[in-house]
Amino acid sequence: MGKDVAAGGESNRRPPPPPPMPLGLRLQLIGLSAAIDAVERRDGTVNRALYSVLVEHLMSVRADPSPDAATGAVRSFDFTIDAARGLWARVFAPAAAAQAAAPMPVMVYYHGGGFALFSPAVAPFDGVCRRLCGDVGVVVVSVNYRLAPEHRYPAAYDDGVDALRFLDGNGIPGLDGDVVPVDLASCFLAGESAGGNIVHQVANRWAATWQPTAKNLRLAGMIPVQPYFGGEERTPSELALDGVAPVVNLRRSDFSAFLPEGADRDHPAAHVTDENAELAEAFPPAMVVIGGFDPLQDWQRRYVDVLRRKGKAVEVAEFPDAFHGFYGFPELADAGKVLQDIKVLPNEKVEPSE
């Protein structure tokens, strides 16, 4: 695992030199950044017509119910949770499992995109979930939550919780439990960036309200990968890496159209890193993934520190050269290493900090 660093003190270091990247990856990141800037307007709205062309048409892939040899025979299919609000999920499961195999853990995944962009069908997230299934050994349920600014706080959190309620009551539709048995009592939440924020909020809501009466689903752990947390304050890492690190800069991280009208980034949906952060007694163990080339890393370390001071079980997987969203690019060695770190969580009891 990456080095577990002490959280709570923001770094005053000089910005690290840009991590080495293949030219092809640099071009991908330039294209991704240009697409984001093209569709997100400065007034907090999204150009959905352009978005449908650049993202839904060019970047999306269909579910593939046939085995994929390149990812360990992982198949995928979609199912509907609530058609009225466009709430659906994509499942990633082995094409078959050994008859004697124990039931597989379930990982419910929430994609990134600043609460305003993307879906489980967008290629990088589809690819991440395929690798999570094949390399970590879990059945992945990737949730398509409603997007801002058309659907502001708390829409994404409501959808995230309702996806868990649906699974608790219905299991995973379309999955043959006799071929690929699953264990909903060993359910993990994972997500990156905005999805990492959703992981925290959904886990806390579930633990506080729904876990006591759940029929089948129990949260065994959560993996926020470079989660989006923030505030009106500018941290040293934000200032040092603005315009240096790819993907995230101050303007993009300030895009807060998911918050209620009139709210700023100190709203508790974004700013969950102070002592007033309320955590349920049954809040699950966490593994927080932090990249050393991510402008949001100081907020993430504050989050880890709050969990520790409140007595919650937490580990940190740190990758010094990792930029925001790194694990979506399999050509990077760290993208493979983080999967090995994540693989530990379903098989290891994480003890609370002293």
Automatic annotation (TrEMBL):
PANTHER family: ARYLACETAMIDE DEACETYLASE (PTHR23024), OS07G0643700 PROTEIN (PTHR23024:SF152). Residues 1-22 are annotated as: Disordered. This is Alpha/beta hydrolase fold-3 domain-containing protein. Signal peptide: none annotated. It comes from the Eukaryota. Residues 107-327 form the Alpha/beta hydrolase fold-3 domain. GO terms for molecular function: hydrolase activity.
